[in-house]
Amino acid sequence: MPDIEQIRAALDGNSAQAQLLVQEEHITERKSNEELHAEIKELRRSIDACIKQAENKQWDIRSRPGSDELDIAILKLKEAKMWCGQVLGELGHKLPAEFRDEAH
Predict the structure, then answer these.
(1) Rounded to two decimals, what is the model's pTM?
(2) CA 20, CA 57: separation in Å to the nearest integer?
């Protein structure tokens, strides 16, 4: 495995070797599914907090310029939270039974 000095030297030369060394270094530092699971769950919590903040502003901004844009922002935040849930599913995380969609 290359050390950081080898990577820096290769990057200074801006070579294909540098790209390969960086990729190799990245691969060796991959996180476990459990670590990723915890980080993605925390990201979903942060996104949920943003959704709640934006929803609290909806009443204040109604009938003013920007209200449609705020609605879109909330929608996109909800989509981001949903996609993070999809990532959790791909990592093997299962929803609690009461939230699972059993339709096939």
Answers:
(1) 0.62
(2) 47
